Amino acid sequence: MMMAKAKEYAAACAKAAKVLARLTTAQKNAVLSDMANALRQSHGPILKANETDMANGRDKGLDNAMLDRLQLTPARIDAMADAIDFLVGLPDPVGERRLVETRPNGLKIEKMRIPLGVVCMIYEARPNVTADAGALCLKSGNGVILRGGREALQSSLAIAEAMRPALIAHGIPGAAITVIDDPDRELLLALLKQIDDIDLVIPRGGEGLIRFVTEQSRIPVIQHFKGVCHLYVDKEADLDKAFNILMNGKTQRTGVCNALEGLLVHQDVAETFLPKVAKAFGEKGVKVHADSATAGYFAGAELMGEDDYGQEYLALEIAIRQVPDFDGAVAHIERFGSQHTEVIVTENNDTATAFQQQVDSAVVMANASSRFSDGGELGLGAEIGISTSKLHAYGPMGLEALTTEKFVVTGAGQVRE
Amino acid sequence: MMMAKAKEYAAACAKAAKVLARLTTAQKNAVLSDMANALRQSHGPILKANETDMANGRDKGLDNAMLDRLQLTPARIDAMADAIDFLVGLPDPVGERRLVETRPNGLKIEKMRIPLGVVCMIYEARPNVTADAGALCLKSGNGVILRGGREALQSSLAIAEAMRPALIAHGIPGAAITVIDDPDRELLLALLKQIDDIDLVIPRGGEGLIRFVTEQSRIPVIQHFKGVCHLYVDKEADLDKAFNILMNGKTQRTGVCNALEGLLVHQDVAETFLPKVAKAFGEKGVKVHADSATAGYFAGAELMGEDDYGQEYLALEIAIRQVPDFDGAVAHIERFGSQHTEVIVTENNDTATAFQQQVDSAVVMANASSRFSDGGELGLGAEIGISTSKLHAYGPMGLEALTTEKFVVTGAGQVRE
């Protein structure tokens, strides 16, 4: 029964997606503007639904961090609307047509960018994903199925309800943005099998959710398990830059996947660099895990065993290790990194380039804070997720990552010999 | 036990892939040239192994088409070597570095092309895939796990054996091109679960094989179920071009996925066009299935019901239908096409453009034969498969489709506010 229900949702969204795929940029922007305005005018019903979710959440004993993510305010609703207005100003990748080559037989080979079709977002207690992902998919011409957690369900439904009239007014089936109102796990499992109608699954949440979706899905899944980002301070580093990048990466915001979780220091600069770090970390209350050569610099440091690295602390906590050389740093990252973001600080351009070439990570930086590793800061405008697997997209995904290209061939009657 | 064995194969190939990823283009080309020469010098052992496969195949009652695909000859071995030499001349996508933008804060955002990692090919009785896919993956810096069918196993092992010394001589672990010597189904299933070490699965074969792999794999799969390609003859078509493109698409080679399986004719040109087609099809022995308005033109035509279209005949057989207009043609293709290749013949450029925009298919052509829809003819140089699903690649896949891009960021010490 759940399979039939899932098929119905997916097929309706796929049908609506065919309408979306043919809209012009101006049409899509008009819908988005109307949606943003509708959200601003719907504070009442959205806040009321959110109160229900918040009360349920408190009853169920959700922790404060989760309740904070769940809570909506007039300002947060307006921020969602602003994000949609911002999308209006971004270039539309759909329809871009580029010449690849003209073949010796005269065939003109081009590529044309088109939407993927239907995207299924699986997420937990963040109601804003409903507005963000709905708008990103619409701008890129895709239908979207939004399957949020039970915790944020009433809020998500109210947000979608506010946005829907803009679809209808522009002749787009409401199923273009489908919110699954039944948080049943069997229905989720059935959705993950709809290979004929859903093109991409994007889970957003903890590692458990992502592993579960990857295990169960028959549809391609964008994976982003965790962010274990390292900073490597090279022997030719500008140590002031290194210090600023370290403090920014570890202490500016700790609960995010682009925060630093590991520091690798070339042994030649350890004696100069680490005492300053120890002082600052002491003041900020950063807990340190370190190898035996390093632990002595940090009061209360916990000694790390050879195999203990690679933790995602998401807190004022960091692993520090001295490395004998560049290759040692690269080898450590290869073993313990999570292919999210890795940073080198060095004044030697050849060393920076070698790091950027050799480190296998979605984002590889020289002399910049790992905190810049998100869609907005990298110039994508907006972000629907971060891929740490390499298929289709690697790293932060913007509008273009929600599209693909088809071959367009133009001839004058050519046939094959 | 099979899970441990699969893990071992996959991990060894992933380790070798890290070596491949760092090779220069010149190094990879040197290995490929040595492989091509080694194949030319290994006729003896390869043909001997192939004789074993052929004898087993005859014992097992394989049909003639399958035996023909299985059979190797000195010329066919040399053709594999030539294909590898051809790859040497193709540009290497790996390492390409392009500027995306310089951000207002001075960060330089670039993208750099890198290999995917490990590709797993699942195929049936074509031993040449062993050489072709092995070489394509090597040129693109990827490790490859080749899991061919039991029927071609001895031939595949002999081909891999001939190619291996070139790897070793250049310091590359032999596991870079891993041939699975155990055709056990449990081992295949276990391979399809190695999400940490295998990045992409490409099945090549019948629809049954591809559905099976898609169902079982936890790794992204390139899907290519079938090719139900249509030709739409518009009311403004040059009917001579249409005739040539029709005959080429249906009769030049029938057992291929880019052959035509459906003909849609605008009703205004049916009376002029169809008698000539009927005569030619009669001479060539093409069997026709048609709607009631059309069947009368063809002696012995079988009448088609409304829901009967969409067959992949792979034979001298075709479905023909008259359509009242352009939209009718597009709607038919949307319902019955397979997102492989669709063709319009028209002298009206606006109509051609509308068709290229509106038809959702990996390859959309105007005034050219569907038979051009392959990697070589579209300018990719070589082809590892055709994707009719949209993730990562859509259409014929060449070297670039075996790579992805990472973000490369270069700063001067910037931190985030």
Features:
homodimer, about 425 residues, alpha/beta, Aldehyde Dehydrogenase, Chain A, domain 1, Aldehyde Dehydrogenase, Chain A, domain 2, 2 domains, seven-stranded parallel sheet, four-stranded parallel sheet, 14 helices, 16 strands, globular
Verbal overview:
Chains A, B: Its EC number is 1.2.1.41. The structure is a homodimer of 417-residue chains. The first copy, chain A, contains 14 helices and 16 strands. Chain A has 417 residues and is α/β, with parallel strands linked by helices. Chain A has two domains: 241 residues, Aldehyde Dehydrogenase, Chain A, domain 1 (3-Layer(aba) Sandwich); 144 residues, 3-Layer(aba) Sandwich (Aldehyde Dehydrogenase, Chain A, domain 2), CATH 3.40.309.10. At the A-B interface, strand 2, helix 10, helix 14, strand 13 and strand 16 of A face strand 2, helix 10, helix 14, strand 13 and strand 16 of B. Strand 13 of chain A pairs parallel with strand 16 of chain B.
